[in-house]
Design brief:
By secondary structure, the protein is mostly helical. The chain is built from 4 helices and no strands. The protein starts with a helix and ends in a 5-residue tail after the last helix.
Length: 55
């Protein structure tokens, strides 16, 4: 999960709710998917469009 946050920090400010959502995730398959996605997206907003993010 730290790897995901580090990747996202490179492209923008991570909203607190998104940080909590990533930190609280325990499913390794979901984390792997998010990690790959974080490596590809160009913005935090793009990531939010591709994963269900509660606001």
């Amino acid at each position: 999960m730290e790897d995901i946050l580090e990747l996202l920090e490179e492209i923008g400010t991570i909203p607190e709710y998104l940080q909590v959502m990533i930190s609280d995730q325990k499913d390794l398959e979901v984390l792997r998917k998010w990690h790959k996605l974080a490596a590809r997206v160009q913005s935090i907003e793009e990531l939010e469009r591709q994963i269900p993010v509660p606001k």
